[in-house]
Every structure is written in C-alpha cells, then in structure tokens.
C-alpha cells in the first residue's frame, strides 16, 4: 500500500516552508522516526521524521522548493498492516535460520504467541476538552515511554494550554503502544494523543519452555542491532557538531531509538578515538606523540569555539502574555504615578502576628494587608475597580473586588486573582494567596483562578528594584507595582533621624477613564490604611 505523508502543522501561523535538504532518496527503505527532510520556516529549522516504516516511492519537492502545510510531502510504500504479530514473525524467521534444528518448536511458539495476542486490542486515547475554547495544547513532557505498563488514572503527560499546565491521566490500564507527539509539539483536542494495548481476555495457549529459552538468544541477536538504513539518525544540531569535528556519523553507534545519534554519542566516539591515539603513542617517536597531542588540542579548540544560536518557539503562557501585553500597550493610554509608603508600623504588626497565625496552609505575608486595604479604598473610589468596553463608550463598575497578583512561575507570568476580597478577612485572604502562589509556581493554576480579575498587584520588589512602569492587565484600568522594602533614614516629627521601613509603589492607570487627581487621592487613602493599621481596622465592616 502506497501512502502519502501530509506535511503537518510545524508552528503557529506557519502555512509553508522551504525544503532545505532531503535526508533520503526515492527507493530508500526507512524506519519509523528516521529523519526524512530538513525544512525551514520563517522562525526555525525543523526536521521531519517518518511516522512509519516503508520504502520511499516519491519525493514531491526538489531542494529549495516551498512546501505547503497539509499537502503531501512524500509517498511511502508500507509493507502490509503493521501488527504486533508481524513484528514477531520477522524476528522468528532469522531465528529459525540460526537454529534450524528447532524450527518446528519455533513455529509452535509463534502460533502460541498469535493466539495470545489475539486477545489484545489497541485503543486510541483522544485528547479531551481541557478548557473552554481550547483547540490545541503544547506537549510539555511525557511521563511514560512506549512499552511502559500503566494503571488506570496514572499520569501520562503534561500539556500546556494558553492558561495553565494540565496533567492527562490514563483512563484504562494497559501497555503504551504509541506516543503520537514529541515533546514540544502541538497536540490537537479530539485527536489521538497515544495508543494503548488493552487486554480483553487471558491467553488461550501454552508454549514449550525449552523452545522459548532456546529461541530467545537468537531473536535477541537479530534485534539487538538497531536499524541503520539511509542516513544516520540525528538532529541538525548533532550533524553540525559531527561536521565541525570531521566525524562520519555512520561510524558512530547511536544510543537513541532506532540507533539515533546524540551529542553524547559523538563525544564518546571522539574520546574513544583520542584514547586509541594516546595508547599508540609509546610505540612511535616523541615527535609523533607531540603531533598527535597537538592535533587533538586543535580539534578540542575547534569544538569549543563552535557556537550556534538557539531558536525557541514562543508558546503557551508566554505567547498569550506577549499578545495581551502588545494589545494593552497599543490600545490603552498608560500614565504612571509613584508614591513612598512608610510601613514601619505595619511591619511590626505583621511580625507580632506571624508566629501565631502562620501555618503550612497560611503564610501571613504583607500581601494580605495590601489587598484588604486596597479593597477598603476601592469602596471610596469605585472607578479603580471598573472596566471599559472596547470602543470606550461604557464603563462598568465591578461589584466584586477580585484582586490579581502577578506570579513569576516556571511556565511564564501568571496573574491569578483572589475572589471577593471585600468579603474576606485578612487570614482568609492569606490562605488564598498561599494556595494560588503554590499552584502558580508549579504551573497548575485552575482556569477559574485566572478569570474575572478587576485590579492587579505586581510584587516586583520581591526580586529587587524600587520603581517600575507596570502594564495594565486589560480589560482592567489600573495596576500597581510594589518595590522592595528598604530600611532608610527619615526625619520624625521632632526633626530627629530614624530608621524606617520604606517602600516605593508605582501605579499605571488607564487615562481614558482615570485622571491623575483620582489615582493620587485613591493612593493617599490606601497609604493611610497601610501606614496606620489602626485606621484600616476601624474601616473594616
């Protein structure tokens, strides 16, 4: 059967690419995952692997042509349906040639295996809906490998949507037969993610133990050598490294699947060559030994000086952040307002309460006080908690105070928000902050925690810095950046110099609906609640 290979999606928004180099030619026999071609998009060089084994019958493009995404790239002739039984028969035939006296027993073993495998079915796991409006996600990491046995509900993979890291569990127990995506690829919702072998009934046949024991070494001898047809299996980076070191990849034994060569394999091959040169040196003259060492030093120097740029696609949370930041800056006229807070009394209050109220579930930081006092100030200045429509004809005053906090997570910038701060106590706010911070730093924030924010706080001072110009989290109308807390000298009411706990805060406001006077008065009230905590206590309901 001849089957066309359709060029898949190789990047968001990419509809065509340049055929840089064919790594095979018509008539070549290829194995699964063997590199077929190098193609260049407008962002990166991508290597196209073979999804199944066969004979290449047609290459549809010449080197330098522009190949279309979702169009045929090459044609391959597949030798019948690929089944587990076929694979065993391929191994069994060479085994029979090696051990002819036990041919009849081997045939009996093969028949028994056929009966056993007839009770196993391969099922495709379709990637389910993992969020409203989400049609694809990035495969961050496989938590299993092909051939692994898994239990029901065992984690199979981590995938990244536009908003969060999601773990995909196994819905059935069985053996992983095929992983349809590689790490970093985009997986489609409602498309197969992996294939799993599920046992339907028990095996209906028995085998001769002596025959299996005799045939096993022969089969192992045949299958232990990886298939190395066509060019060596290696990525473009590995090929560049081999060229720079003048190493023939066909001489390097690959440790990857189907003999794929990695950089470590090249390094090991180079070291083996160096050892052979050094071991032969005593039998040569001193001049020859010196020349060999000089040559090795030159090779090492060449490898050290060889550098290559790294191209990384912007996906997942980072891609969403980039899009939203550009949209915010291009559509909202920002203005900045800065102020200095003296938090000496608040720091003392928090220190006196921390030992009593902090637990593993509740970390009593400064942030709960900032959020609660901000909510109290919003009650006097509701425009700070509003949202404007796209054409700036309507202003919606939000009843809920859902205050967001920017978190620097391992997957990028996330802004989860604490819902209904106006109705929560400081300890309840602290518990929510602790929960969301732990979830965000692990990249596992629930989509509901990222929605419906009304105003945001960026605690950039936790990393350093005093003043910033934060970007408004559209459709909100204001955001504040907190600088680092510093011990600085200040004059008291008597004109004496004291050490005080000082923090700089930087506001960004939407100048379409907020003017400088409004944000200054709001900030002054917020400052009063924080500098004099007793005022905040009196304002609470």
Protein architecture, described:
The chain is of the alpha+beta class and 541 residues long. Helices cover 33% and strands 26% of the residues. The radius of gyration is 32 Å and the shape is elongated. It contains 13 helices and 26 strands. Strands 17, 20, 21, 22, 23, 24, 25 and 26 form an eight-stranded mixed beta sheet that branches. Strands 1-8-6-3 form a four-stranded antiparallel beta sheet, with no helix packed on it. A four-stranded antiparallel beta sheet has the order 5-4-2-7, with no helix packed on it.
Low-confidence stretches: 81-118, 202-230, 280-284
Helix content: 25-40%
Shape field: elongated
Distance between the termini: 76 Å
Radius of gyration: 32 Å
Give the arrangement of secondary structure elements.
Blueprint: E1 2-6, E2 16-22, E3 29-30, E4 35-40, E5 45-49, E6 54-59, E7 66-68, E8 72-77, H1 84-98, H2 103-117, E9 120-126, E10 136-142, E11 149-150, E12 155-160, E13 165-169, E14 174-179, E15 186-188, E16 192-199, H3 209-223, H4 236-244, H5 263-280, H6 286-305, H7 316-331, E17 334-342, H8 344-357, H9 367-380, E18 386-388, E19 395-397, E20 403-409, E21 412-414, E22 417-418, H10 426-441, H11 447-450, E23 455-458, E24 478-482, E25 486-491, E26 497-510, H12 516-531, H13 533-539
Parallel strand pairs: 20-23, 23-24
Antiparallel strand pairs: 1-8, 2-4, 2-7, 3-6, 4-5, 6-8, 9-16, 10-12, 10-15, 11-14, 12-13, 14-16, 17-26, 18-19, 20-21, 20-22, 24-26, 25-26
Helix pairs in contact: 1-2, 1-3, 9-10, 9-12, 12-13
């Amino acid at each position: 059967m001849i089957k066309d290979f359709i060029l898949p999606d190789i990047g968001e928004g990419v509809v065509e690419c340049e055929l840089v180099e064919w790594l095979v030619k018509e008539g070549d026999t290829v194995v699964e995952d063997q590199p077929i071609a190098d193609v260049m998009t407008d962002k990166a060089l991508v290597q196209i692997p073979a999804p199944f084994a066969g004979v290449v019958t047609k290459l549809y493009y010449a080197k330098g042509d522009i190949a279309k995404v979702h169009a045929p790239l090459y044609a391959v002739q597949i030798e019948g349906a690929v089944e587990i039984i076929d694979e065993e028969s391929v191994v069994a035939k060479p085994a029979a040639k090696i051990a002819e006296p036990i041919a009849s027993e081997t045939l009996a073993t093969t028949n028994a295996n056929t009966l056993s495998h007839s009770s196993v079915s391969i099922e495709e796991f379709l990637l389910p809906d993992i969020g409203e409006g989400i049609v694809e996600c990035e495969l961050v990491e496989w938590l299993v490998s092909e051939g692994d046995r898994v239990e029901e509900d065992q984690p199979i993979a981590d995938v990244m949507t536009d908003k969060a890291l999601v773990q995909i569990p196994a819905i059935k127990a069985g053996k992983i037969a095929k992983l349809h995506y590689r790490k970093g690829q985009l997986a489609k919702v409602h498309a197969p993610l992996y294939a799993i072998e599920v046992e339907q009934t028990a095996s209906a046949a028995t085998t001769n133990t002596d025959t299996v024991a005799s045939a096993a070494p022969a089969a192992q001898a045949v299958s232990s050598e990886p298939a190395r047809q066509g060019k060596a299996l290696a990525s473009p980076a590995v090929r560049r490294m081999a060229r720079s070191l003048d190493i023939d990849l066909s001489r390097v034994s690959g440790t990857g699947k189907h003999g794929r060569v990695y950089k470590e394999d090249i390094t090991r091959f180079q070291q083996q060559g160096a050892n052979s040169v050094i071991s032969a040196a005593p039998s040569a003259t001193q001049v020859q030994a010196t020349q060999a060492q000089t040559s090795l030093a030159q090779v090492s120097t060449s490898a050290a000086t060889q550098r290559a740029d790294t191209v990384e696609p912007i996906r997942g949370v980072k891609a969403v952040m980039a899009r939203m930041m550009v949209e915010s800056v291009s559509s909202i006229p920002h203005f900045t307002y800065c102020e200095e807070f003296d938090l000496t009394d608040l720091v003392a209050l928090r220190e006196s309460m921390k030992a009593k109220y902090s637990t593993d579930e509740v970390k009593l930081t400064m942030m709960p006080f900032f959020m609660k006092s901000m909510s109290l100030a919003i009650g006097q200045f509701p425009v700070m908690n509003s949202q404007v429509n796209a054409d700036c004809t309507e202003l919606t005053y939000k009843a809920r105070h859902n205050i967001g906090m920017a978190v620097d997570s391992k997957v990028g910038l996330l802004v989860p928000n604490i819902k209904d701060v106006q109705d929560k106590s400081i300890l309840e706010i602290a518990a929510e902050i602790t929960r969301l911070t732990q979830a965000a730093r692990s990249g596992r924030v629930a989509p509901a925690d990222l929605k419906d924010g009304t105003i945001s706080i960026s605690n950039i001072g936790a990393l350093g810095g005093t003043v910033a110009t934060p970007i408004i989290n559209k459709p909100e109308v204001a955001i504040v950046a907190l600088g680092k807390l510093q011990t600085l000298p200040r004059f008291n009411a008597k004109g004496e110099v004291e050490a005080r706990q000082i923090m700089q805060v930087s506001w960004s406001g939407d100048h379409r609906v907020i003017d400088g006077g409004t944000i200054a008065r709001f900030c002054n009230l917020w400052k009063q609640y924080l500098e004099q905590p007793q005022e905040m206590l009196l304002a609470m309901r």
